[in-house]
């Protein structure tokens, strides 16, 4: 299996930290090593935090990304650093979640993409946001994310 | 991301409480910040209470709202206060649940909406009510709510 | 919301008990308060018992009813008393479950109905019975009942 | 292993049903086949029903019995028929649960006994009753029953 | 079993609602029908709501009561109405939970009592309060309440 | 409900044991008591054992059968005895599971049938086998079996 | 680590099957490789079957063994074959479970032993049997087996 | 119940954000409203983040605090802001967790305190840290925190 | 059932270990014993490990294979040895998972195949990869794999 | 908090891989940063593999370590590399698990240590091994590891 598709990367195996803002964060891509098949890649990130634009207080979310690669894969360390770059970013939940999805679509040019943010409750009521680029292509397998709905207590 | 869409709000960041009745409660809306995508927003409210029209005794429910925004998002604090306005309201379970759904549809003009009430048991038998405006639009992702069916004991 | 639809009921708020047989039990109906929407009502009854026609010994089941109201709703207390009227009734599992579903369909004239009995094991093997009147109408939301399949031990 | 300890039984392998009342029900006993060891026997009965003394309506419970045999074991079919004999019996939850425990103690003369009733909710609030004859003897292993506490909805 | 211990009750089987304040609410007691045994009675109430003293907004809690009766049992309907009387009461979580426990102790004179409030999150952080009158008496069985610790999302 | 459909049975209520081989086992059928409805019957058997054809060692499986009756129902005791007849039978997992399904189809002539074997792991890797006669008929409700996928440890 | 303690074994790595009866089954032992520490070994066997002495029908159980080795360990393949030797053995649940425990104690001479059988339900009521040789020695860690109590349906 | 104990607080109901460092963060205290009882207060914070001292990358933890108040309660909003002040703080897991516990002990002077950090995995291996001031006082009830041990996948 | 289809196998019942590389590993096939039915075979392997191509450190995955046999079945021991042959193989997650799927397709010529790898987290973010050969054929039953999405802590 | 305690480490932040054998693996230690408190550190490692001494085939385990530090903490990366060094090591389950515990005790000189291996099943029966150095010191909090007991299927 071709190791060389990772040869140009700037961040993998380096010790640099995350960018200070999402705008500065650079997602890196590698060549799809299995271009003859349509398959789904899922990344699960339970360690996401940003700031509330109204109060400046921290928000937290559990994120799940599903996509069908086109010509490239997103490199996982650069994805992690991209998510970390929201640490001091102010964002509304709906806008932030869909915005991440839209940016990934624009940069990655995947065949299909689904992205969800499962936000922690504020005022006793959590928000979940579910975005995708449209119906999944025929014949590709996309399991449910099955992150539990918020339960409260008891 | 545009903070300004929240600039006209009356309730966000204010200390006023809930209206005394659902009729008096005012849902506020902000401009959909991502109008180019169809996505689903889910609010989960496990803290709902109203009164039984027959006995006057309190009823409780766990509510879940899913919708695809049209031109506006419902602002989450006003939604919370709207739910709180049922505290002294007398309502049958089926009527109350569908009625909330219908009002949200009328006011929000969402592209699609789903609303469920999972009521606590009375007489050993709980009622769940599942309402939606019709089939979800093609290509939009709507995960199951997956609130557990009532189990009894054992 | 119209309280008056409950005005004619004989059993709600009364202290009379269940009928002695299913044949004698009377299901009561009220006007559908939200006739402009198609929605699903779910009743979950984990407290059902009847008698085995062969041995006379008690059987137990966990029942779940889903339906889309037509012109009427079934009143929940009369439904509870109807279920209780099977206490001294002898019934095979398949026949009993489908028979309840068929009777509800005949009396209620719902737009659609689904009814399941999850029976306790006999001879180490439980029976579940799943009945519905046909495919659910387009555009109506019917979540899975998701009652766990029998597991045995371990 | 001695089959003969079962030779005197009246109910095992017979087709007779349950007695009509707990008072008429006869618990049968067999000789403890392992009298040199102190061990715990657990019976779990999720199929128990009696009647409410105030309303006459059915009550349901999930029962768990733990005991350390003395000279005898309770025969399991007679125990099942004993539990079935409550079907038309009127009983308050606390009284009924402790009463069953006390009767089993009196008749069985076990070295130790624990008995719990996990009743289905009435008025939205279930009652659990936990009875035992005292601290378990030193050196005997008594796992927790771990029946889930009532959860409500959500 | 003695039905007569319930003969003096004012609220059981009556249609009166809850008192307007906890101070006005009257807990009723019946004679312990099994005074020769020490046993535990557990009531689980997932339907509790009060008001925040600072903001006036609703708070919710899941309550669990365990006690060993002395000469009396608390009657379950009067307990339900007592819990309902907090609906318009302003209370801090720690104070409210322990206060309910202390009042029950004072009025019931139980041999032992344990009371917990599992409050819904505020500011993303829920409070649980665990009160008991001291170590449980030797030889009495008190299973864990095992209400799940708050989990957040993911 | 017609008890008479059970009148011809040889095994129900008799004390005979299982046949020595699947070939000798006789499945008995009764008339479908609800021929006007299409419904699903599920039998769950967590107590199945056969022998490995290579090593002769015992194998175990958890079986679940779903079918839509045609003119007959399979009688549950004869089904139990049929499953027990594999106790000394040597069978590969795939062949055995599909073979049971095929035999039931041939004998029962159901409108549709689904049969699964969830085998215990050998070599650290369990096999599950999922058989059905084709797509379920339109309008019939077939819930997922939802037996958990093997998990290993941790 | 000394492989040689396994050198004398007759069954490990051989292809012989289980003995035909428990009496003929031979448990093999190896030298405790860590005699300076007191530790617990747990074997979990969800694949156990024997025969009912009354009806001759199969019984099933989930077994868990915990012990603190003395001078020897029980070799796991011989333990598996010992459990398999009950396949055609007739046994009452209480007697069988405690009998296995007592035999293991007699042969292994462990410092301490705990053995449980979690039997599948008969007549709707399963039996669990919990045996141990006495209190675990001070300072040794014995986690709960935490096999779920039988739940029934729903 | 005395509202006045909250009268002196600087942060409750104010809009100021978290301090920039733990050193600057000020925990506020109110008078224990129930000084005659020993009870436990639990705060669960699943939204904690700090920085790794070696790599500067974000760490995340789920925190649970249990304590028995002495003369004061910690005010919950100031506790939340204290936890938020670690957002840009560099901390090793063991040191950070125990350090928070020690500071709370020093400032609050509780009768007893327990504090745990359940950190997200690094290198595939998560660290949990469990600190308490000693054995809980006799007669006080301290339920297990029961946060699940890390599971990995499958 | 035909034992002879296993007669030509080289690895089943032999003591040889796994090949040193996936390239050297030989998957063996047997004739489909039920060629008249389309059914699904699932293998679950929670014991998979390979090496990271960048760091050389071990990676772990939970694998699940579903396929509809054509003329052959894959023999389970050879499949186990094939999975073991990755022990010293360096592989990126996406490439490795899809590559295994593609090889199985090429060699087995199944009617349909689905293969998933659920990898353990690296950098706090696990990758799942979902591959299939296209939509499952009409009328074949393919249950969800339902391996839980990664949860993190809390 | 003192970063300097990590200054002497050879492996943290370096790219060297695991040693080839446990004997060669070097565990590194840092000064206990909180020597005035007795607390428990838990490491959970679900990614452990070694080789069977009889067959040479891979074994897998889920490991959990709990200890109370004395003068030092074990550095987590060196612990990870130590666990990885068993990859080509042949080990019996009981011996390997207790041996790791004994080595950690000898090298770390903790105040107390507990170590468990939860091994994947072989022959359908998994082995768990539970080791500790004796009773935990008074006043230190050691939550249960609560790794689920093996369940089999169903
Ligand atoms: Ca799906
Ligand atoms: Ca709840
Ligand atoms: Ca779906
Ligand atoms: Ca139940
Ligand atoms: Ca569905
Ligand atoms: Ca099982
Ligand atoms: Ca215990
Ligand atoms: Ca909140
Ligand atoms: Ca306990
Ligand atoms: Ca979480
Ligand atoms: Ca695992
Ligand atoms: Ca049974
Ligand atoms: Ca314990
Ligand atoms: Ca405890
Ligand atoms: Ca990691
Ligand atoms: Ca499906």
Can you walk me through this structure?
- The structure is a homodecamer of 154-residue chains.
- With 154 residues, chain A is α+β, with helices and mostly antiparallel strands.
- Chain A has one domain (18-132): GTP cyclohydrolase I, C-terminal domain/NADPH-dependent 7-cyano-7-deazaguanine reductase, N-terminal domain (GTP Cyclohydrolase I, domain 2, 2-Layer Sandwich), CATH 3.30.1130.10.
- The first copy, chain A, contains two helices and six strands; from the N terminus they run ββββααββ.
- A four-stranded antiparallel beta sheet of chain A has the order 2-3-5-6, with helices on one face. A two-stranded antiparallel sheet of chain A has the order 1-4.
- In chain A, a hairpin with a 7-residue loop joins strand 5 (112-119) and strand 6.
- Chain A is globular, with a radius of gyration of 16 Å.
- The N and C termini of chain A lie far apart (50 Å).
- One calcium ion sits between chains A (121-124) and E (121-122, 124).
Which helices and strands, and how do they pair?
The structure is a homodecamer of 154-residue chains.
Chain A: E1 29-31, E2 39-51, E3 58-68, E4 72-74, H1 76-84, H2 93-108, E5 112-119, E6 127-132
Bound molecules: calcium ion (16 copies).
């Amino acid at each position: 299996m071709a190791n060389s598709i990772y040869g140009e990367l700037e961040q993998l195996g380096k010790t640099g930290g995350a960018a200070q803002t999402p705008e500065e964060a650079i997602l890196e891509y590698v060549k799809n090593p299995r271009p003859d098949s349509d398959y789904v890649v899922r990344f699960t990130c339970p360690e996401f935090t940003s700031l509330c634009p109204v109060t400046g207080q921290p928000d937290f979310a559990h994120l799940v990304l599903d996509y069908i690669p086109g010509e490239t894969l997103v490199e996982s360390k650069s994805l992690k650093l991209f998510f970390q770059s929201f640490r001091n970013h102010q964002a509304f939940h709906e806008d932030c979640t869909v915005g991440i999805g839209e940016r990934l679509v624009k940069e990655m040019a995947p065949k299909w993409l689904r992205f969800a943010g499962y936000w922690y409750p504020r005022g006793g009521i959590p928000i979940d946001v579910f975005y995708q680029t449209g119906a999944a292509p025929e014949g590709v397998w996309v399991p449910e994310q099955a992150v539990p709905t918020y339960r409260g207590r008891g």
